[in-house]
Amino acid sequence: MAKRKIALFGGTFDPVHIGHTTIAADAARHIGAEKIIFIPAKRSPLKGFLPKANDKHRLKMIALAIAEQKTFEVSDCELKKPAPSYTLDTVRKFQAEYGDDTLIHWLIGADSIDDLTYWYQIIELIDTCILITMYRAGCEVPDFTKFEPIWGPQRTEKLQQNVIQTPLIDISSTEIRDRLASDRDVTDMLMPPVAEYIRKHGLYQSKSTADGE
Ligand code: ATP
């Protein structure tokens, strides 16, 4: 019997933007995943700074962004753990919950490739789930051949086969935060309810201080 497929999409989502939702939907179609679960991280183990909006705001913005999409869900499982949380632990948690007849996919953007060697137990992670790499505007086409000497040909081949040519959407949360801090327009980058939430709560108004109560 064919296995069920789900896709997990981790990130800081500070804030979640149209790039995230568009590529996630496209990747899910390619994979044939029955659902995509957005998993906001308390903080990224590899980013040298904390998210600007607090956990509650980031979680709520994701909920607003995905409200119309029946196959999208959000999980606060990493927010409930002490920071930082590791992808491998999260993948194992979902695998245990869904059981062995479900294939767990983990989505990353092409900009994350060079960081992968620093990820916690990366070899274990490559073997445990299906790591899906999505194209990203401004990044090179994903190419894993340079990792062959460290991860071996089978893992490299597995990663390469799971590259998905998602649409190039030139949006980043950094750009959105910068624009909001200098009072510039972000209308085309955010789902309208997320833009409204940011406005209502005065998020990302300054570059330096952390937002949220
Ligand atoms: P920041 O600018 O704060 O680093 P970001 O826009 O990259 O944020 P994250 O929350 O860090 O957003 O991203 C979560 C995941 O989504 C990462 O794997 C990232 O590579 C991917 N991603 C984010 N935006 C895009 C995009 N426009 N196209 C493709 N992948 C993306």
How much strand? 15-25%
Regarding quaternary structure, what we see is single chain
Q: Count the helices. How many? A: 7
Bound molecules: adenosine-5'-triphosphate
CATH architecture: 3-Layer(aba) Sandwich
| Spatial strand arrangement across the major sheet | 3-2-1-4-5-6
| CATH fold name | Rossmann fold
Question: How many strand elements?
Answer: 6
| Unreliable stretches | none
Overall shape: it is: globular
Q: How large is the radius of gyration?
A: 17 Å
Main beta-sheet strand count, sense and barrel state:
6 strands, parallel
* The CATH class: Alpha Beta
Number of domain modules: 1
Description of the structure:
- Strands 3-2-1-4-5-6 form a six-stranded parallel beta sheet, with helices on both faces.
- Helix content is 37%, strand content 15%.
- With 213 residues, it is of the alpha/beta class.
- It has a single domain, classed as HUPs (Rossmann fold), CATH 3.40.50.
- The protein binds adenosine-5'-triphosphate.
- Residues 11-14, 19-20, 23, 108-109, 111-112, 134, 136, 169, 171-174 line the site of adenosine-5'-triphosphate.
Briefly say what this structure is.
With 213 residues, the chain is of the alpha/beta class.
What is the fold's blueprint, element by element?
Layout: E1 4-11, H1 18-31, E2 35-40, H2 55-66, E3 72-74, H3 87-98, E4 102-109, H4 122-128, E5 130-134, H5 148-161, E6 163-164, H6 173-181, H7 192-201
Parallel strand pairs: 1-2, 1-4, 2-3, 4-5, 5-6
Helix pairs in contact: 2-7, 3-4
Features:
single chain, about 210 residues, 7 helices
